[in-house]
Amino acid sequence: MSVPITIRNITKRYGDTVVIPDLSADIHDGEFFTLLGPSGCGKTTLLRMIAGFIDIERGTIAFGDQVINDVPVYKRDYGMVFQNYAIFPSMTVEKNVMFGLENRKVPKTDAERRTLEMLAKVKMEHLAKRFPENLSGGQQQRIALARAIVINPQVLLMDEPLSNLDAKLRIEIRQAIADIQREIGITTVYVTHDQEEALSVSDRIAVMNAGEIQQIASPEAIYRRPFNQFVAGFVGHSNSFDATVLENAGGRGGLRLAGGYTLALDTLRADVAAGDEVVVSVRPENFVVADSPTGLSGTVRLRQFLGAHVQYILDDPHGREFLVNQSADFGTRLFEIGDSIDLGLDARAVNVFDGSGRTLIEGVTSNVVGNDRAAAAS
Ligand SMILES: Nc1ncnc2c1ncn2[C@@H]1O[C@H](COP(=O)(O)OP(=O)(O)OP(=O)(O)O)[C@@H](O)[C@H]1O
After folding, report:
1. What pTM did the predictor assign?
2. Among 199, 214, 230, where does a domain finish?
3. Which of 52, 194, 203, 224 would disulfide-bridge 73, Cβ 3.0–4.6 Å?
């Protein structure tokens, strides 16, 4: 049976260096929860604290109602999949998967049946008698996954499980992992620094930076409504423009970007006032080509045709550089290097941040325990 995981106020330091200052999160029962962040942000440290390889100095972690701080590793009820597969080279595929069941003294016929069922789930039953050295990386990772979940643990932990695979296999195995996770509905904590991987498999993503969770939300919300500029810049590309608020009343707001482009939007928080200096953040696909001057334009410095879309790097007259994606379908005009393009912005899609990088869009929260409350109080 799977369980929720409750993390409260945990801390980790190495010597004088604080790696995780004070972290809390609620991971829901049965969800695919991903820790995403740049190298060194503390995601592996957090996963290893849940696994019990690293001591919890302060705070608590609970599986369901049970605080696990003092539960030894071998008694914590989870399965784990590592980057380097970590399957036993001297055992066949079948023996590798059966190992945990034998350890738990599951009767032999029952263990054999469950092993076969699990091998079928990961599509490896035809290789049951093989040794790991005769398997591809993708096949080894399928076995590692089968071995982790055959014991019916409460929780599944995965530490960069796709990092050693080539690009095509990464897509195949991540789909297999997502399918099986959904089928058995096990609470899963998954660590990756690869945003596409996180966006494609997760129910919710926690974006981390410097030991702190910046935002917890669905993949769509993380991409479309980032809580702060770090999330906007780390997940996908964002173009930033300084802007001034012209008006904001009764749900209608207006902004002027440096350079003169004006933008009407009805998504600003009510406390944003005329005269406020803000930052407008625009995804490359949220520019629209205009047929007359708008106050926002750029000259094509680079064009890359990528099949489904064309990516342009533009230089604008104010010394800014921005990245614009346009559909590459047959009806869309392709621009040449040196062409000047007049642009508009899709007002529904832009994000707006204050001077400290926090969102000014109505209703967007970080969902980090304690964080929004603190923000609301300040
Ligand atoms: N045993 C250790 N002693 C000292 N510092 C450590 C130790 N282990 C990790 N760190 C530091 O703690 C920080 C967090 O490391 P961690 O491995 O959790 O990051 P990560 O987000 O998983 O990064 P990556 O994606 O590179 O694995 C890093 O700055 C790292 O250098």
Report:
1. 0.93
2. 230
3. 52
